[in-house]
Specification:
The protein has 303 residues and is an alpha/beta fold. The chain contains eleven helices and eleven strands.
Length: 303
């Protein structure tokens, strides 16, 4: 029994040291480590931390189309970016496009809720979000005639998973309703999902230098290409424009999570605020970007 006292005491001391230093232990005295760790902690910003990105779970009881949600304009814009969190993570990139091509826009996003005109909650994957989703989408739809262009983006694969035919019909119907109101529509495709992405890898690498944070050539783009082909064909058949950001995220059939030292993702499904800006800069002169977004300058420059 006495033989166990000393090891137990050592473990206790070490545990107290870890707790007292907020997990740093002996690294609490390593200024270089703490500086590098602090620098890493500011590299990945949640998109919802940006004041001009309007992402909520439930817009019920609120008026989402407010001045705080305007980008590159001080007056009511005629362009709306509408969708879920996959719409929100494109806003910094779109902000860059708006400054280059001279237009302003409003943005509104409701989490886990597709941008469709009728019974949006029917398509969400969370039972406890159905009513809030439908209410939120209805609030946006009530104001839809305010705009002459609507940019729609979402985690399309999520809503197609359970009832693909219903979701495709709902999206088609929404685009057709918008066109009946003489509203131009741009549908934005999905970025690749990264199931093995580790946002903390670089922080772990500070402790374990042999750790490799590069993910080789990344995931294959096969599933994303198939999904986006379906969305593109539907959009174009319904008279809408189609666009996606994957020319900056994928190369030769592979889509890495890091590029030129830039961490591209915040989690498996979303870009970070910083990487959205980065991707926008890479694509601002791309022929598809110019084709789709330059005509929006007719909606008015920054005021």
């Amino acid at each position: 029994m006495k033989a166990l006292v000393a090891p137990a005491a050592v473990i206790s001391v070490l545990s107290i040291a870890v707790v007292a230093t907020h997990g740093f232990a002996w690294r609490a005295f390593d200024t270089n480590y703490r500086t590098n760790l602090q620098a890493l902690s500011t590299r990945i910003t949640h998109i919802n931390q940006l004041p001009y990105v309007c992402l909520r779970i439930d817009w019920s009881g609120r008026y989402p189309l407010n001045p705080a949600c305007r980008v590159n304009t001080q007056t009511q814009p005629s362009i709306l970016v509408w969708g879920d969190s996959n719409s929100a993570h494109y806003i910094p990139a779109l902000k860059g496009f708006s400054k280059t091509f001279g237009f302003g826009f409003q943005n509104v996003a409701h989490g886990l809720c597709p941008p469709v005109s009728e019974e949006a909650g029917h398509h969400t994957t969370r039972d406890n979000r159905r009513e809030a989703c439908t209410r939120s989408a209805n609030i946006v739809w009530e104001k839809i005639d305010t705009y002459d262009t609507v940019i729609m983006a979402a985690s399309w694969d999520t809503y197609l998973r359970d009832n693909p035919d219903d979701m495709l019909r709902a999206l088609t119907h929404t685009i057709e309703q918008l066109h009946a109101r003489d509203i131009h529509v741009i549908v934005v495709g999905r970025i690749p999902v990264q199931p093995h992405f580790d946002a903390d890898c670089e922080a772990k690498q500070l402790r374990f230098p042999i750790l490799n944070c590069e993910d080789g050539r990344g995931v294959r783009d096969t599933e994303t290409v198939t999904l986006n082909s379906t969305i593109r064909d539907l959009a174009q058949a319904s008279g809408a424009d189609y666009y996606d950001f994957n020319a900056a995220l994928c190369l030769d059939g592979r889509c890495p999570t890091r590029r030129d030292g830039q961490v591209l993702y915040r989690d498996q499904f979303h870009l970070s605020a910083e990487s959205s800006v980065y991707v926008g800069r890479l694509l601002v002169d791309h022929e598809d970007t110019v084709r789709v977004f330059r005509p929006l300058a007719a909606s008015g420059p920054e005021t």
